[in-house]
Amino acid sequence: MAKLLDEWDLTHVSYEGTAKPVYRRGTGPGVIVIHEVPGITPPVASFAERVVDRGFTVFMPSLFGTVGKKKTMPYAIESAVRSCVSREFTCLATGTASPITVWLRNLARRAHEELGGPGVGAVGMCLTGGFALAMMVDDTIAAPVLSQPATPFPIGRRRAAALALSETDWQRVESRVAAGCPVLGLRFSNDPAVPAARFQTLRDRLGDGFLAVEIDSSSGNEFGIKTSAHSVLTEDLVDEPGHPTRHALDHVLTFFEDRLHA
């Protein structure tokens, strides 16, 4: 069996003293796929391949974890702890974006300068779920997707409703949304890591410019989705026509097409 990502090109991208490995594949407008905890797992790579197949050049940086390693609970906990103590990530603080988003914005600018088009797409998941929102301060980002944005960790009522963004950045995001750049968000309804209050904040601040996909994961739901479901596009995806998670995946791919293939 071919090793995961063997068919992808690997480069190292540096910006302001920070270098990260970046996997690249595809043709067409650029999309930044920002993996979730614990790292680039097989389901994350599978999602990235789907984006490639829809006519995009995917840039997938490896920010933490071991590329290709399957998710286990001990591995996920270890990766999350390492991320929390890293200076590149802000997991508890409100009112500020993770420093790594500055590096990601530079990656998006490079992609757009090379590939052109209306802009670049970006999708974050879990710990990185809100990164696409922070990247929107640059005009480069034209298709931001927030999949289960789990930071700041929802400890207390204030954090439960917050996203990791400064007020200045919020105002910039609001301005961009008002000018016609919508934001797509995904979550499971019963996910304690992404409370309903967080999506309500996005609705309150962005109005109709926030496109919410909330999948019923309550006890006894129609599709038998487990109440602990969290990863909409990867670990908890049920790739069957008519399933809500498949619908969410299709929504993301269509969103990229509508926004970037103009």
Can I get a quick summary?
The protein is an alpha/beta fold. It has helices at 42-53, 73-85, 100-115, 131-135, 157-161, 167-178, 196-206, 244-260, and strands at 9-15, 18-26, 30-34, 57-61, 120-125, 141-147, 183-188, 210-215.
Give the helices and strands, then pairings:
Elements: E1 9-15, E2 18-26, E3 30-34, H1 42-53, E4 57-61, H2 73-85, H3 100-115, E5 120-125, H4 131-135, E6 141-147, H5 157-161, H6 167-178, E7 183-188, H7 196-206, E8 210-215, H8 244-260
Parallel strand pairs: 3-4, 3-5, 5-6, 6-7, 7-8
Antiparallel strand pairs: 1-2, 2-4
Written account of the structure:
With 262 residues, the protein is α/β, with parallel strands linked by helices. Helices cover 35% and strands 19% of the residues. The protein has eight helices and eight strands, in the order E-E-E-H-E-H-H-E-H-E-H-H-E-H-E-H. The chain has helices at residues 42-53, 73-85, 100-115, 131-135, 157-161, 167-178, 196-206, 244-260; strands at residues 9-15, 18-26, 30-34, 57-61, 120-125, 141-147, 183-188, 210-215. An eight-stranded mixed beta sheet has the order 1-2-4-3-5-6-7-8, with helices on both faces. Strand 5 (120-125), helix 4 and strand 6 (141-147) form a beta-alpha-beta unit. The longest helix has 17 residues, at 244-260. It is globular and about 45 Å long. The model has no long low-confidence stretch (mean pLDDT 95).
